[in-house]
Amino acid sequence: MPKADIVLTLRLALNALLSLIVCAVFGLSQPNAAKAAPEGPDKTQQYLANATKGDPEAQFLLGKTYAALNSQDNLAKAVEWWTKAADQGHSKAQYSLGRAYAKGAGVPLDLVKAASWCQKAADSGLPEAQFYLGFAYAKGDGLIKDFTQAVEWWRKAADKDYPAAQYLLGVAYATGDGAEKDLATANMWWGKAADQGFAGAQYLLGRAYANGDGTAQDPTKAVELWRKAADQNFAKAQYSLGKAYVDGVGVAKDMALAKEWLKKAADQGEELAVIELKNLK
Questions:
Q1: Taking all residues of the chain, what is their mean pLDDT, rounded to a whole number?
Q2: pLDDT tens digit sequence for 167-195
Q3: How many CA atoms within 13 Å lie on the side-chain side of 88?
Q4: Residue from 160, 157, 209, 155 nearest 184 by CA
Q5: Which residues, 6+ apart, have CB-to-CB distance to 8 below 8 Å?
Q6: What pTM was computed for the model?
Q7: Are 80 and 58 spatial neighbours (Cβ–Cβ below 8 Å)?
Q8: How far apart are the C-alpha atoms of 168 and 149, rounded to whole Å?
Q9: Which of 54, 74, 81, 179 is the most exposed place for a label (fewest CB within 10 A)?
Q10: Is the pLDDT of residue 239 over 90?
Q11: Neighbour-count burial of 9, counting CB atoms closer than 10 A to its CB (0-12 exposed, 13-18 middle, 19+ buried)
């Protein structure tokens, strides 16, 4: 993959993954995120009783309960309880508080405070906080932009099998941004993320196999990886899979399947797929 393309992929990846990080604040689904606080008035009353006694875990869970209600007043209450737990060193509360400051959810937006709280959680070894801190360094959100630091924090999270960190660590090695360029190492990290079902990593590893970048060229393996990402509605993989069917590379030529996958990608705005479909008419 040309460096310009993969650098753009990194920038887009950082922005796209922000939405996943935001989900963690409100207890929504994200790889390796803590389970959402149990619902129900009885459980909430139990949290409240224990939180009032100073139990940091209950304070954290009560904060998550308020955050799940997703109104400004309830977000402010969530921040209040997360602050109490965070002040006692509860790493998930520190991370949640940091993300609240990052989004201005229940508190005024403050990227410096966001980075500070996430730093505390990251220092405690929380992988989602380590990933976010790398993100903050990469974007310069509340910190001086520093890709070397970003890579170091992503590495810590990646070593804990956090797939988004493994993916971006692979991109860093592919581009040489914050790490010495090493395509084989990039493929290694993408492979770890791909094995966990991370679509972006499956796509880029497929590209590596298709082009022979840092590995032996293997079009069949490329198609297998693209199919996995395409099944997750990853547009670039859908385009690549469709093009493979057009060209008969890595898979038997099949124009019906080619058009089917290209249309899926085109419907998501993938320009190359739009162009390819026009060429096939």
A1: 88
A2: 999 999 999 999 999 999 999 999 999 99
A3: 16
A4: 209
A5: none
A6: 0.84
A7: no
A8: 13
A9: 54
A10: yes
A11: buried
